[in-house]
Amino acid sequence: MKPDLSVRIGKLDLKNPVMVASGTFGYAEEFGDFIDLKKLGAIVTKTITIKPRLGNLPPRTCETPSGMLNSIGLENPGIDKFIKEKMPFLKKLGIPVIVSIASVDDPGEFTILVKQLDRIKEVSAIELNISCPNLHKERLISQDAKDTFALVSAVRKLTEKCLITKLSPNVTSASEIALAAERAGSDAVALINTLGGMSIDVDKRTPKIGSWSGGLSGPAIRPVAVKMVWEAYNKIKIPIIGSGGIIDIQSALEFFIAGATAISVGTANFINPRASLEIISGLKEYMADNNIHNLNNLIGSLKACES
Amino acid sequence: MKPDLSVRIGKLDLKNPVMVASGTFGYAEEFGDFIDLKKLGAIVTKTITIKPRLGNLPPRTCETPSGMLNSIGLENPGIDKFIKEKMPFLKKLGIPVIVSIASVDDPGEFTILVKQLDRIKEVSAIELNISCPNLHKERLISQDAKDTFALVSAVRKLTEKCLITKLSPNVTSASEIALAAERAGSDAVALINTLGGMSIDVDKRTPKIGSWSGGLSGPAIRPVAVKMVWEAYNKIKIPIIGSGGIIDIQSALEFFIAGATAISVGTANFINPRASLEIISGLKEYMADNNIHNLNNLIGSLKACES
Amino acid sequence: MNQAQIKAKIISNKRFKDNYWHLEFESGLIAMHALPGQFVNIKVNSSIDPLLRRPISIHGTKGPKVKLFYEVIGKGTQILSSRKPGELLDVIGPLGNGFDLQATSDKRQATILVAGGMGVAPLVFLAESIKLKKPLVLIGAKTKKQILCLQEFKALGCAVKIATDDGSAGFKGRVTELLGQVLRQAQGARQLAIYACGPGAMLKAVSRMACENNIDSQLSLEEHMACGIGACLGCVVSTKSGYKRVCKDGPVFSGKELTW
Amino acid sequence: MNQAQIKAKIISNKRFKDNYWHLEFESGLIAMHALPGQFVNIKVNSSIDPLLRRPISIHGTKGPKVKLFYEVIGKGTQILSSRKPGELLDVIGPLGNGFDLQATSDKRQATILVAGGMGVAPLVFLAESIKLKKPLVLIGAKTKKQILCLQEFKALGCAVKIATDDGSAGFKGRVTELLGQVLRQAQGARQLAIYACGPGAMLKAVSRMACENNIDSQLSLEEHMACGIGACLGCVVSTKSGYKRVCKDGPVFSGKELTW
Ligand SMILES: Cc1cc2nc3c(=O)[nH]c(=O)nc-3n(C[C@H](O)[C@H](O)[C@H](O)COP(=O)(O)OP(=O)(O)OC[C@H]3O[C@@H](n4cnc5c(N)ncnc54)[C@H](O)[C@@H]3O)c2cc1C
Ligand SMILES: Cc1cc2nc3c(=O)[nH]c(=O)nc-3n(C[C@H](O)[C@H](O)[C@H](O)COP(=O)(O)OP(=O)(O)OC[C@H]3O[C@@H](n4cnc5c(N)ncnc54)[C@H](O)[C@@H]3O)c2cc1C
Ligand SMILES: Cc1cc2nc3c(=O)[nH]c(=O)nc-3n(C[C@H](O)[C@H](O)[C@H](O)COP(=O)(O)O)c2cc1C
Ligand SMILES: Cc1cc2nc3c(=O)[nH]c(=O)nc-3n(C[C@H](O)[C@H](O)[C@H](O)COP(=O)(O)O)c2cc1C
Ligand code: FES
Ligand code: FES
After folding, report:
1. Which residues contact B107 (CB under 8 A, 6 or more apart)?
2. β-strand D4-17 against D20-26: which pairing, if any?
3. What is the pLDDT of residues D29-39, one digit of tens each?
4. In this predicted model, what pLDDT tens digit does every residue of A254-294 receive, in sequence order?
5. What CA–CA distance (Å, rounded) separates B223 from A64?
6. Contact A79, A120 (CB under 8 A)
7. How far is C173 from chain D (nearest CA, A)?
8. Residue B42 falls within a domain, yes or no?
9. Could you say which DSSP state residue C50 is in?
10. Is pLDDT at A132 greater than 80 in this prediction?
């Protein structure tokens, strides 16, 4: 019998639990030549702000051991242009579209963005990016439980749509922030956004990134992400969308076993555009081999080492 | 003319700024066959506690992308046996010996340990390990600025010896904790200890580490460490001892340029026992090539990208 | 678009001289659609060290064969040079927009190609496709040993002038000074079009000179790339119409557009 | 101690069959000091993927040559199998304590070697050094194809018995059941000493049986290793005198010591 890969995130039903992570998949068009986009569980868009943003000074990316740094700085066309120019293509795909949004100066911007997106039927869910390290703020919203609670509560009042709160690993306890998001009515949390990092050109004695520091992603951060997912899984009841260094089925499985209901593939899209689809088929195989009929039986199935 | 590699950490003069990190060099004996120990800038011992500790359940280490997890759990013979059996060899080396210590149940244990070490002439400095992730506490001392301030202040009263406070990267702002340590009278801070992490055997569906999670080290965490060193350098005046993924001269230079007065080599000792000495000679070369006569002219020399 | 991710068979991978290598792989699809100025993005091995792909210009095509010309400068190109004929190479391409040939379509017009260092790689492919125009090629390098593709350009019937910083061959000085000379001589003669690839500083100088002489210039840029397909917004360069992606909107830009 | 980090020339590296490989490298120093049961710790390439060294038992020595016998099971051994003769291998060794030969020094005593799977690797070296004792060797594997080093042991004049889980060769069942049979037959005959290497479960069974029959057993263990030289305290196994390091206090332990 065929394994059942469907999962539920709040009100949102996914035919499979494999999404692509915000900022690593453009607006999907960019990948149309490489994979059948319709097979994805969901697409998370690049983070959108109210006004268009130019983004940060180049160079914006550099390679690090088993990872990369990026400091894009939320370059995006702004909500209006996004809706006019990017949504039509996304609508046509007929798969869940999760729109990621962020505020730049004032958390109040979230309410404006949410009201606008709430009106669009094809927006399946809204991801609150309160964890972008590349605006170079003193403190991110997701670095404070109270701020997180306040922001999510405010937004929750404005929409019935599935709300996902994306959290930063640069905190003393990610699960405490996750708990604040849950209490404020978030339907799910996305763990993790990038880890703050910096890399230096020792000949020039300058940072390798134009805006000095950036966000670390890729396999290097996987153990950090898996631990945070496991800790959150033991603290909250809402679904967790896991990400951080997922590049293949093996690494994806670590997240499901640690308690992720769904996963998102990020940096791996750059290296192997087919990574997300390969994970979907790999997941079917693994479930068949281990006769797990329903994905929910795999989620959080971690048990102690026998010794 | 020969470049001057000597640096000063509080009262402690080092002939060169390259140390070996606590827990990655045993008690130095283990490396006697591979390198001339006398050439090291300083040796930091495995962390010592009052009572002997068995340490955590094996397996205690696993490999991760460009890194490794460890959960040794501060296995050590206890302070008395350490002084009786391990110090004699260390004394004979005639290079600065930095003894790392930790409390297990009650911060008060630090005072007992410090009093005992204060009496030993050959103990050049004491490193306060308030950042070990492998005791699996709800919160580490170094995860709270007040706790850090209180602990360091209490210890400061008990000894004139150079005090180094070793900090955790698992915090919202490492530089704030560093500031607390400085205000409490620490002579230096060591940045960073390992990042909490977890890795899963997807066939067994168990953690790869017996105690579930461990500390992530190695090149993977270097960008995180470099950023924390740079941020601390801009916030505090006391010297910073940088560590995190240093494996060669290139990676060591990133830390000096970011503001580290000295560095410590950890995981690299396992892969290449000669790494620390190769870094010392590489540093001499780099300084000669760039005619930097005094290391202090390199420390914190990071400048913006020209674009 | 006609770009694809392909496991392409390596046909040959030989050192040309010093650290310069020629690689040929087989991909009918990429060869068929490749335009001068486009590039491929290569996963040099199946390991996560290095993690990212490496962008390399298309140096030419022959039937189903795609030719690359690369310099070993670091870990990725080092590993690429160790790959053996018969092995499969994970390649994405053809990527980016090629040179705009309209700029030189006019018969009355003379075409100048300016190559600095490895900048010759895409320009040989360009010269091939416009060889009927017998473009003038200016090649610059530090020293004679580093002058590349001289024979290729001559074989295509191009007139070639050389500039070396140390004067060990041709004009002593930067290739941009040589270009200045050429432009002064060509003074007002015929309409000109300039195509250039090379180090950033050289390209800036070329575009400045082109603008001053209001000549149309087409520059092939390099930026650090994470995705190479326009998705990450990492490889941007600043233009009159804001930041543009070198990988997708470029790598070729008109000198007029760029604001660096 | 006589351990060292050496860049040793690879003399040969050949597939023996299936995923099993023989590698020989040259290091007079390691060869001279190597004892049966000791191992070397190898950096399989100069990349950071994989990051850590890989421990491999010393399978034998011949003059300045050190022989290894390994199975390709993952990334590191895969890369090791791709290394070519003439290349330099970064090796640390000889590491750990060898088998305690005292245990079998007594003339009246019979010696049994029990090998499970790749456990044959160090036991061939041991058999060579005690071949005058003509030890009895029990080799276990899942199936006939996986019975390793049969010829080597016979060539050394050892009596060899085989056990396969599927009965495709020799005794049908676990090698430990075969050992049980042998012990029953040897009932009280002469004093015995057992040396074993193989999967953890097998070693546990062997040590249990040895203790029950109060026979001295020497077991060669495996644990995940970060340093291999006793510095990280990562590779511990629990013994009557607390945790001990497999790399430094082992890899060989007396069955009596172990408390797993
Ligand atoms: C569109 C384009 C076309 C190119 N065509 C060619 C060509 O035909 N022949 C050739 O020899 N080289 C070409 N390059 C440069 C080539 O991509 C780099 O030399 C190569 O990536 C170096 O990788 P490495 O690991 O050997 O060097 P490293 O220095 O170890 O690389 C470190 C990181 O920096 C990046 N990087 C280093 N140099 C460059 C560069 N100049 N541009 C962009 N990223 C860089 C690498 O991709 C890698 O991510 C091209 C670059 C671009 C952007
Ligand atoms: C003292 C000692 C002697 C050994 N002698 C031999 C030998 O002679 N021949 C042989 O084929 N194998 C031997 N092994 C096992 C060998 O070390 C592993 O098969 C090898 O490390 C696998 O690496 P990999 O990258 O191919 O596999 P992977 O599974 O990719 O390795 C992943 C990680 O697990 C570790 N690991 C995997 N299996 C083992 C294991 N059994 N023991 C310890 N660490 C492991 C690896 O070192 C690596 O860090 C020995 C192990 C030890 C501890
Ligand atoms: C180039 C790049 C751009 C990113 N942009 C965004 C973004 O706009 N919004 C966001 O929430 N996360 C962004 N991220 C973070 C990813 O969505 C993801 O959370 C992170 O990269 C960890 O996953 P990974 O290791 O699989 O890449 C970006 C990551 C990268 C590498
Ligand atoms: C196996 C192992 C054991 C360690 N034990 C200690 C310890 O006892 N005390 C301590 O302060 N740090 C300990 N550390 C942390 C290191 O001292 C160092 O801070 C960390 O590993 C980061 O540096 P690296 O990436 O160069 O290894 C240990 C690290 C490893 C890998
Ligand atoms: S490299 Fe990603 S957009 Fe150009
Ligand atoms: S592997 Fe480090 S102590 Fe054994």
Report:
1. B141, B147, B150, B151, B154
2. antiparallel
3. 999 999 999 99
4. 999 999 999 999 999 999 999 999 999 999 999 999 999 99
5. 7
6. no
7. 40
8. yes
9. S
10. yes
Q: How far is the CA of C43 from the centre of ligand 5 (A)?
A: 15
Answer whether residue A69 shows pLDDT above 80: yes
Residue D186: the pLDDT is: 79
| B70 in contact with ligand 4, CB cutoff 6 A | yes
The CA C142 to ligand 2 mean position distance, Å, reads 50
- Ranges of residues in chain B with a pLDDT under 70 are 1, 307
- The yes-or-no answer on residue A305 being catalytic is no
D209: which 2 tokens? 């049986």
Q: Is A133 a domain residue?
A: yes
Biggest distance spanned by C-alpha atoms of chain A:
60
How many structural domains compose chain B? 1
Interface predicted TM-score (ipTM) over 0.90: yes
- The closest residue, in CA terms, to atom 31 on ligand 4 is B267
- Residue B142 inside a domain? The answer is yes
Active-site residue, from A62, A132, A162, A305: A132
Lowest-confidence pick of A192-196, B191-195, D93-97, D166-170: D166-170
Confidence of residue A232 (pLDDT cuts 50, 70, 90): very high
Range of the domain at A225: 7-297
CB B222 within 8 A of CB B265: no
Does B302 map to a domain?
A: no
Low-confidence ranges of chain C (pLDDT < 50): none
pLDDT tens-digit series, residues D22-63: 999 999 999 999 999 999 999 999 999 999 999 999 999 999
Give the residue, out of C40, C221, C235, with the most ligand 5 atoms within 8 A of its beta carbon, to mutate for a pocket test. C235
Interval between CA A218 and ligand 3 midpoint (Å): 9
Q: At A286, which CATH number?
A: 3.20.20.70
Whether chain B has a CB inside 8 Å of the CB on C48: the answer is: yes
Asked if C48's CB is within 8 angstroms of A269's CB, the reply is no
Q: Whose CA is nearest to atom 43 of ligand 1?
A: C224
Q: Does C51 touch chain D (CB under 8 A)?
A: no
Cβ proximity of D91 and D5 under 8 Å: yes
Domains of chain D: 4-95 (2.40.30.10), 102-212 (3.40.50.80)
For the beta carbon of residue D130, count every other beta carbon within 10 angstroms.
20
Tokens 């003074």 identify what position? C187
